[in-house]
């Protein structure tokens, strides 16, 4: 029997009282499962925390000193128990080390996706398809109007531009994927990375499946030689250079609002779009879908009368 309150949303994070653990808790808790290393999912200070080796590596890079005795490294496809709940991490394809979390309690399978994508990405583990009774899915782009274009066609928008390019992107995951895409499809372009991205690129080289070609940004390199540079910068730096001259500006994202006032539109997202979400639901074959991280109303309308789709329940006091 599916338990409606198996996983509920609380102020701290998503809580499973049957296993006495949180998932992606925002504040320190006794036991926390971490789906991936992005800041809105990975926090420090928990008594016990479970994550993949890559996720912990990125967290060490961000937080510096961490209590190693609290860090329980989890391998993909290797189940473990927390009280009466069996837990297994499966690759989510969102970024290196990102995980879906399968929870089995009294033979009912609950799958928490975290953030995930189906598009190929040579810098991280591909998404693993797992069947479950309840799918607890992000719904960032759960809208029929959102269909992500092919990332190869998008990155080729940077080709044959007679200018250096300032490319805004997120430091962890997106910057490394873009570097790999440029390396593969625009080998004539030299990738320069912001100093905050450089140590993350180094970790991807150490832990990931692909070696990246890039160099640490320096002003002289941008000014001298051929205009074949792509300078990857984080969002705050990108926004501070709104008056930058002699470069073309682009920001890699699935969000239309982040494409405005740029010289090049670059729709490259690390989340599932509408079609991928429908495909994923069909493959997981759940009896129920619980939505998180977005708006699930259009998904409910689409499956009305066919499949129960609802927002995850909020904990009541």
TrEMBL record:
InterPro entries assigned: MBL (IPR050698), RibonucZ/Hydroxyglut_hydro (IPR036866)
Keywords per UniProt: Exonuclease, Hydrolase, Nuclease
GO molecular function list: exonuclease activity
Name this polypeptide is given: Exonuclease
